[in-house]
Amino acid sequence: MSERVAFVGCGSWGSALAVLLARKGLRVTVWDGDSSVLRGIRETRHNPYYVPNLEFPDTVDVCDTLEECLRSASMVVIVVPAAAVRQVCAVAAPLLRDPAVTIVSATKGLEPDTGARVTERIVAALGPSAAQRLVALSGPNLADEVARDMPTATVVAGPSPQRLMHVQKAFSAGVFRVYTSADIVGVELGGALKNVIALAAGISDGLGYADNTKASLITRGLAEITRLGVALGARPETFMGLSGLGDLVATCSSRTSRNWRVGYALAQGVPLARAVDELGMVAEGVPTAQAARVLCQRTGTEMPIAAQVHSVLFEAQDPRKAVEGLMARPLREEVLPDPPSTASTSS
Ligand SMILES: NC(=O)c1ccc[n+]([C@@H]2O[C@H](COP(=O)([O-])OP(=O)(O)OC[C@H]3O[C@@H](n4cnc5c(N)ncnc54)[C@H](O)[C@@H]3O)[C@@H](O)[C@H]2O)c1
Questions:
Q1: Contact (CB, 8 A) for 112 and 142
Q2: Residues 33-75: pLDDT tens digits?
Q3: How much is the pTM?
């Protein structure tokens, strides 16, 4: 019998991944906190609000309760906004005790008040032994493009090579190429923190600045993400990969990126609450900017771009003044991470 994969969260990204796996013949169950999402999928085989053009195969089982969704699943994919993970874990923890069950986080965000990564939050709920069964999935994967079968790559990271290979095989498809990494800290931080830089890229475009500005933001954004990541135990080279540079380029360049759109609106003078409200979907960069501030204070790390984004979001900083503030910083050497010592030639 084929593997049974349960999706906790069926918004844009949960839908795209669930359909990807179902089309491969895996048995998929989905649950979401919003019953209208579930009703829509069950009745129309589409998720009209989040990904209207994606058709759900009949084999995707829509569940009204989390218990039903998780029952007899051998793999569970958490794909709700980061702010919802604590609440979901509180309910799901007793149902996720089986050590055979692999738990994949496809969420890209950090808890705003603590800076906790999603897998840290899951370990807090399930206990330290759960760490071995955790995998984070992250990369340049805009849900709408994955739903339209546009080829892309992603990376799955975790401590257990067996679980990684298992998840790699489950998610790999003709249009979805999956790499593995042992650096779960780096992969999660790359996927979460790039959203803050995407807000900056949207602000830059909204102010009418051009490609030089955005390229500088992406490059220096990557440098400061790497700096914080290394301070938190990640490997510097991870940020050169799919979940770092790859996702930064996608999110900062795409006008469909939610964080880019919120940044663009802010630069047009739209207040934050209205920009987020009009988006109607999660923009993880907003809470992650708060988390980045917490983590920078804890580790004594400087993230000048993230700090300016935070002040635009929460301290009514004029976006143009934020850019001026970045340009006026003391001049310094461009310090880059050393290349990895054991270079591999395979790709
Ligand atoms: N959209 C993308 O392109 C994309 C790509 C990769 C990763 N991600 C990440 O995946 C995560 C989810 O993003 P999304 O795009 O699917 O968001 P979304 O806004 O499209 O959907 C979120 C879903 O989560 C559900 N939800 C919210 N709180 C819940 C709760 N407490 N309990 C149960 N369900 C709850 C909502 O009802 C909704 O269906 C985010 O961390 C995001 O950064 C998104």
A1: no
A2: 999 999 999 999 999 999 999 999 999 999 999 999 999 999 9
A3: 0.96
d(CA 225, CA 83): 21
Considering the chain, what percentage of its residues have pLDDT values greater than 70? 97
Helices (H), 50-138: 66-70, 82-92, 118-126
Residue with CA nearest ligand 1 atom 38 = 11
- 4-182 and 186-327: same fold? no
Residue 198: count of CB within 10 angstroms of its CB: 31
Instruction: Please give the single-letter amino acid code of residue 98.
Output: D
The residue nearest atom 11 of ligand 1, judged by CA position, is: 107
Q: What is the pLDDT of residues 18-28, one digit of tens each?
A: 999 999 999 99
Output the pLDDT for position 280.
87
pLDDT above 90 (res 201):
yes
Domain definitions of the chain by residue range: 4-182, 186-327
**Homologous superfamily of the 4-182 domain (CATH):** NAD(P)-binding Rossmann-like Domain (3.40.50.720)
Pocket of ligand 1 (CB under 6 A): 9-14, 32-34, 37, 50, 79-82, 84, 87-88, 106-109, 141-143, 281-282, 284
Q: Out of 24, 108, 169, 194, pick the active-site residue.
A: 194
What CATH code is assigned to 186-327? 1.10.1040.10
